[in-house]
Amino acid sequence: MDTVVAVPRGLAGVVVTDTELGDVRGREGFYHYRQYSAVELAADRSFEDVWHLMFRGTLPADTAERDAFAAEIAPLRVLPAELRDALPALARATAASGPLAGLRTALSLLGASAGFRPVFDLDPAGRAADALAACAAVPTLLTALHRLGQGLEPVGPRADLPYAANYLYMLTGREPDPVRARAVERYLMSTVDHGFNASTFTARVIASTGADVAACLTGAVGALSGPLHGGAPSRALDTLDAIGTVDRIEPWIRERVLAGDRIMGFGHPVYRTEDPRSRMLREIALQFGGPLVDFAVEVEGQVERILAELKPGRELHTNVEFYAGVVMELCGLPRAMFTPTFCAARVIGWSANVLEQAADSKIIRPAARYTGPTPPQPVPALG
């Protein structure tokens, strides 16, 4: 019999590979991109800088290097004509599901129309070129699909705007307020990568087969779409709406916790302290201020108190989705675009992981423990 190794459900705590891209240290409440704190990068650098770090291994040394990378990306935001022509039909077909569902098909079409080849057949430069093209196209695809779904014409990208500002411009058709553009940029920077989460692992599994970059990213989007992964920012905000007023917080939360329901926006499978992304986004929200922020802070405090009482011994704090929803709402993003916006950042991390995995030709092929009826059983005759 082949030797097998039993591991925890969900592969929790199992190391499956080595990576130079970053890590999450859950007990410390810390995560990093390569050797730099992700939260510090989000405070002090630009999105393009982080993209350069993940793909090229270093931060731009000066503004000239940053500008050169931005100039390399900007033309890639424009979609191939074949893909642009297909988007109206794709938006109609996914009207009930939203832009993230449309993105799965759009990425496949992008890879096919652009001639993406299997990463197994490409050298590192060819893989990186495909990954760069896919990442640059994702914001254009998402905003076009959203606008078409709303009966509006897509807004083409602007080469003179940085990543986050261009994303908001394509979404709304208006050049964004710099304060809101920076708030969204910091959110995007904080969600580029986050260890071996489900979507990142999915991308790497597909990359290990030698498939093309578009196939890897399509699988990652599918994993992200699940509400237990990236689909929670709007649900966390829906929770605030459902509670409604301060006097309803305690009874509403107690009823849900005692019923065994999950409180969206709270708890994380890795962190045993406060999520550093949530801490940063709370600070951004507080800079905006207003009734929604005040209410969110009050809900956070009461929920943590109630969870500590009803689930003693467990560290349950807000995760990135809770204040991400608040910040995106304050910046004018429609809720249907909360998870797609997350995707517009995470595609950079997925692609960096695909490139790293593609350098190792070993296919990821774990085993499963069979628990069905004892074989072999006689095949019954048809009655």
Automatic annotation (TrEMBL):
Highest taxon of source: Bacteria
MF (Gene Ontology): citrate synthase activity
A cellular component annotation (GO) from this entry: cytosol
UniProt cross-references to InterPro entries, sorted A to Z: Citrate_synth-like_lrg_a-sub, Citrate_synth-like_sm_a-sub, Citrate_synthase, Citrate_synthase_AS, Citrate_synthase_bac-typ, Citrate_synthase_sf
GO biological process: carbohydrate metabolic process; tricarboxylic acid cycle
Catalytic activity: oxaloacetate + acetyl-CoA + H2O = citrate + CoA + H(+)
Pathway: Carbohydrate metabolism; tricarboxylic acid cycle
A UniProt-annotated Pfam family: Citrate_synt
Entry keywords, A to Z: Acyltransferase, Transferase
Record: active site: H268, E321
Family assignment from sequence similarity: Belongs to the citrate synthase family.
Name of this protein: Citrate synthase
Native source species: Streptomyces subrutilus
